[in-house]
Fold Inositol-1-monophosphatase.
Amino acid sequence: MTDSLPIPLSSPMTPAQQSALINLVRRAARAEIMPRFRNLAQGDITTKSGPHDLVTEADHQAEAMIARGLQRMFPHALIIGEEAVAAKPSLREDVSAAELAIIIDPVDGTWNFAHGLPLFGVIIAVTRFGRPVLGLLYDPIADDWIIADEATPTRLGAALGAERPAKVSSGGELSELQGYMHYSLMTQEQQELVARLLPGLARVTSLRCSCHEYRVLAQGAVDFVMSGMLNPWDHAAGVVACQQAGGVAMMLDGRAYNTEISEGFLLCAANQDTWTRLRDHFAGLLGEAWDEKS
């Protein structure tokens, strides 16, 4: 690997750059994440915004290693990670102004990781002025990844074996739809509204891991993912993976997703018809202004 792999700003990463990115993430997982899985001391786990918002030594050390590698590879890029933003929240605002930004979620699904559940991942998103253009969703347990960029289809890759395409489901009527929703992160008022609507769908749950939720969506095993907690390290990569696997990813009010958006609901679905059915079903989350507009 060379010390500098400049990304052409008129297009996503080259195949060589994407390979270098994947290899960097795999090395960080081997060095900093997997040795700590089911091997954390009590002092290795702390909290951030609340008792269920955990951070571990694996998060800190993996983010530091990935950030160092990315800065060498892309010296002119803005590199930010979830834990860096936790320490300095103003960093998030810099993403939408950056011509090239790379966003790191070093251990997505930290609650699962800290409790010994093998359902966590590493997320890398590349953005241009806040618009996602590349996403990597890596599973350290299986040592495989979903990767997508705005110029090529979503595909599943592994250490051994060729990449194969990933494709979203065919969607369907509301009563047939399965998906993931971050219900516990909503306000009580939103939860009460949504609770009345859930019986109209086939199945709605959460994996407590956006990385795997978007991986499952991109491979067609569920029909949608919806979230009102819009941390870019959780969702920017998933937006690209969904769109390039044939799906639709927009804010519930119809806006294109951008990392600058911090309020509202992001809905990623199998196709336009499915997205529209879900938007209409959950339109109450948009409030009175939407009712008047409709």
Q: What stands out?
A: The CA atoms of residues 125 and 135 lie 5 Å apart. Confidence is low (pLDDT under 50) at residues 6-10. The first helix runs from residue 15 to 33.
